């Protein structure tokens, strides 16, 4: 169990730690021998009640381990632990111990409550829990923020070595990241100084990388107020993401990240923000490891101002996507199609019109029974949105595809519905299953005999989807979405 798990890395995208492996082993053993192990674990819990000696690391680690075990086995211990009483009589007090060495236990207790809150925790205790959580979230270090940040800024101005400036910027970035919006009253001088430092570092790309990192955290801390930085910020993004400029080799990755956080914190689209999207076509042609960030940037533009963005750039974006789909992995194909799906979600009419050249391939993929489940699920999501939100466009697409395939429209529609019903299990997310169900239900009012013949299949998958999206409220006994 302590070996590096190559299988886990393949399944989950990263190696499981030894601790994670030990937890899986513990759960398996506890599940199979719960009658033997439950009394042992409960006795250990009982022995650890009351105050803990903060000077004894062994006792602290033991309590952390036992509480971890109780949290992992929450469902197994449901009938054996009165968690509400334990919370009021013991855990609540432990959350209020302020000693710095007790941080380990406070963290574990909050995690433990998180494990049990959906298992066995009365709703009338929640306000008390929320009050304690709020007190834990208060930061005692904030009183030093003004002096620390001011001194760091002075140091940044005073030092002359490039490496030293980079180190100071790194510390400043860490401070901004840590305090987030609390930094806003103190960044005025830094905001005024960074354009000068950027200009001075023209020959030092690594220093510019450090400046980009600082700007990323600064924008996140300032939120919508970062709009005041645009006269400096947007030219920096423009240069960093322009593949025709030599510095992009060093600045591209951080520049894309800065571009993304700028959009995420922008209160509204501006002509200047729209203009820098001209860099995107060349970036998509690179097909580099930064493609995922590029797609996130496109999504951010769509969410921020779908109509204005699509009217300006959908045509060139669609060409880039068509080129990408010719030579891309299945995972990359899904990422491209998800951008199209978001465009259809935000702007059903304009999105379908602008990305029309991509939709026949999606239609053919459904009819041909695309073998890769995630791709098929995305195909069905796109077609579901077109059918549900823009039925006129779906009809014209069906006419076009029937002509291309030399089939009658009714015959082709029947094939689509049959494949859709058959491959519904490829769709794993409940909200996507709901979308497909609603899309197919929208066909039922038609008197088309082909649709009527598929009535039973459509109703069956809709009932299954209804079970997926509805949950029972344990307090009222009613079902809700």
Write up what this structure looks like:
It comes from Collichthys lucidus. This is Importin-11. Residues 209-474 form the Importin-7/11-like TPR repeats domain. This protein has 481 residues and is an all-alpha fold. Among the domains are: 33-138, no CATH class; 142-267. It contains 25 helices and 2 strands. A two-stranded antiparallel sheet has the order 1-2. A hairpin with a 6-residue loop joins strand 1 (471-472) and strand 2 (479-480). Helix 4 (57-72) packs parallel to helix 6, helix 9 (162-179) packs parallel to helix 11 (205-222) and helix 19 crosses helix 20 (373-389). The protein starts with 5 loop residues before the first helix and ends with a strand. 26% of the residues are buried.
Biggest pleated sheet: 2 strands, antiparallel
Spans of at least 5 consecutive residues with low confidence: 1-15
Number of helices: 25
What's the multimeric state?
Answer: single chain
Binned strand content: under 5%
| Helix/strand order | HHHHHHHHHHHHHHHHHHHHHHHHHEE
Quick tags:
481 residues, 25 helices, 71% helix, ARM-like
Short recap of the structure:
By secondary structure, this protein is an all-alpha fold. The chain is built from 25 helices and two strands. Among the domains are: 33-138, no CATH class; 142-267.
Layout of strands and helices, then pairs:
Elements: H1 6-12, H2 18-32, H3 34-47, H4 57-72, H5 83-95, H6 103-116, H7 126-137, H8 145-158, H9 162-179, H10 188-200, H11 205-222, H12 230-240, H13 248-264, H14 271-275, H15 280-286, H16 291-326, H17 330-346, H18 348-354, H19 359-367, H20 373-389, H21 391-405, H22 409-422, H23 430-441, H24 449-453, H25 455-469, E1 471-472, E2 479-480
Antiparallel strand pairs: 1-2
């Amino acid at each position: 169990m302590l070996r590096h798990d190559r299988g886990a890395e393949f399944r989950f995208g990263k190696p499981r730690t030894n601790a994670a492996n030990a937890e899986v082993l513990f759960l398996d053993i506890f599940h199979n021998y719960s009658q033997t192990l439950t009394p042992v674990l409960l006795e250990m819990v009982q022995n650890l009640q009351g105050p803990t000696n903060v000077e004894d690391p062994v006792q602290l680690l033991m309590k952390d381990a036992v509480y971890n075990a109780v949290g992992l086995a929450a469902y197994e211990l449901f009938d054996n632990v009165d968690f509400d009483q334990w919370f009021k009589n013991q855990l609540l007090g432990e959350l209020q111990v302020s000693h710095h060495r007790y941080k380990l236990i406070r963290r574990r207790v909050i995690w433990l409550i998180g494990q049990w809150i959906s298992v066995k925790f009365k709703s009338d205790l929640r306000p008390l829990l929320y009050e304690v959580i709020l007190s834990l979230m208060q930061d005692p270090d904030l009183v030093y923020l003004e002096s620390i940040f001011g001194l760091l800024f002075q140091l940044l101005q005073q030092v002359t070595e490039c490496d030293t400036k980079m180190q100071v910027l790194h510390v400043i970035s860490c401070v901004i990241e840590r305090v987030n919006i609390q930094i806003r009253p103190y960044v005025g001088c830094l905001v005024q100084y960074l354009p000068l430092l950027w200009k001075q570092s023209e020959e030092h790309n690594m220093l510019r990388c450090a400046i980009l990192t600082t700007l990323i955290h600064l924008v996140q801390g300032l939120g919508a107020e970062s709009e005041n930085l645009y006269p400096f910020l947007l030219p920096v993004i423009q240069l960093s993401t322009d593949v025709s400029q030599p510095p992009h080799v060093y600045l591209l990755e951080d520049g894309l990240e800065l571009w993304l956080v700028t959009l995420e914190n922008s209160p509204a689209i501006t002509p200047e923000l729209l203009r820098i999207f001209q860099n995107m076509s060349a970036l998509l042609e690179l097909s580099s490891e930064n493609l995922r960030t590029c797609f996130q940037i496109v999504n951010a533009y769509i969410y921020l101002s779908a109509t204005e963005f699509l009217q300006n750039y959908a045509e060139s974006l669609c060409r880039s996507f068509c080129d990408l789909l010719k030579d891309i992995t299945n995972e990359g194909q899904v990422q491209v199609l998800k951008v199209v799906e978001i465009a259809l979600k935000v702007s059903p009419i304009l999105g379908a019109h602008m990305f029309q050249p991509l939709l026949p391939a999606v239609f053919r993929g459904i009819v041909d029974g695309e073998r890769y489940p995630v791709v098929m699920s995305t195909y069905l999501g796109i077609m579901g949105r077109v059918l549900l939100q823009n039925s006129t466009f779906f009809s014209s697409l069906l006419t076009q595809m029937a002509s291309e395939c030399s089939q009658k429209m009714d015959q082709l529609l029947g094939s689509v519905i049959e494949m859709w019903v058959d491959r519904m299990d490829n769709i794993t997310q409940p909200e996507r299953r709901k979308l497909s169900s609603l899309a197919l239900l929208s066909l039922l009012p038609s008197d088309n005999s082909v649709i009527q013949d598929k009535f039973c299949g459509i109703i069956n998958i809709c009932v299954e989807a209804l079970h997926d999206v509805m949950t029972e409220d344990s307090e009222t006994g009613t079902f809700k979405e």
